[in-house]
Automatic annotation (TrEMBL):
Name of this protein: Acetyltransferase
Keyword Transferase: yes
Annotated N-acetyltransferase domain residues: 16-148
InterPro entries, A to Z: Acyl_CoA_acyltransferase, GNAT_dom, N-acetyltransferase
Keywords annotated in UniProt: Transferase
Example of a GO MF term: acyltransferase activity, transferring groups other than amino-acyl groups
Protein source organism: Fictibacillus phosphorivorans
Spans traversing the lipid bilayer: none
UniProt cross-references to Pfam families, sorted A to Z: Acetyltransf_3
Length: 167
């Protein structure tokens, strides 16, 4: 972990949601979330490895994707947080992914809002986001979070739009 920044808070609450660090037991819903991408469901063994990696990376780097649980219903609905992604530890990316059944309820915006606050509290000055050009819902969340479109890059799957938020 770089000494320049404080570690991010890994436990947070909003009006409707609890955000937490990954536990091995999250593997069972995590694999269902990945399956919604339409390219198959990871085995439980792979999913356990993945969530353990996410947890360990968080503890090492001081930034994390966090699980999102609805407090009233008690169910896990996805994740949101900070990753290096295509950017850097100093200026990480915000990322989120929720189950389709809960889309359109403001949950991504609610979770991402406290993640932005948590990024500020680590001492960071800038966050990025990289989103496929077709992803209107994701751009709308970014707009609500006051990110601004910055530039595009291209890979074999097409355009990636970079947006930025100065903190
Ligand atoms: C992106 C994602 C996390 C948004 O989650 P969510 O909880 O539905 O987001 P919110 O409800 O907070 O906000 C979504 C906004 O997008 C809008 N929206 C949804 N689909 C849209 C579309 N096709 N065109 C335009 N706006 C759209 C909603 O109306 C809402 O805006 P509003 O509050 O002004 O009405 C969710 O769609 C998702 O998990 N997608 C799959 C994974 C993904 O793409 N992650 C981002 C990768 S960069």
């Amino acid at each position: 972990m770089t000494a320049k920044f404080k570690p991010m808070t890994f436990e947070m609450e909003t009006d409707r949601l609890s955000l937490s660090l990954w536990k091995e037991s999250d593997a069972s819903w995590y694999r269902e979330l990945i399956a919604e991408r339409g390219k198959g469901m990871p085995t439980i063994v792979t999913a356990r490895k993945n969530v353990t990696t996410l947890r360990n990376r968080a503890l090492e780097s001081g930034i994390a994707l966090l699980t999102i649980r609805r407090r009233e219903q008690g169910d896990y609905i996805g994740y949101c947080g900070l990753i290096i992604g295509r950017s850097t530890l100093e200026e990480p990316e915000i990322a989120y992914e929720l189950f389709k059944r809960v889309h359109g309820n403001g949950y991504a915006t609610e979770a991402a809002t406290v993640i932005v606050d948590a990024a500020v509290a680590t001492g960071r000055h800038k966050l990025w986001s990289t989103v496929r050009a077709w992803n209107a819902a994701s751009f709308r969340v970014l707009e609500k979070l006051r990110f601004e479109r910055h530039h595009s890059t291209w890979d074999e799957s097409g355009e990636i739009v970079w947006s930025v938020r100065d903190l």
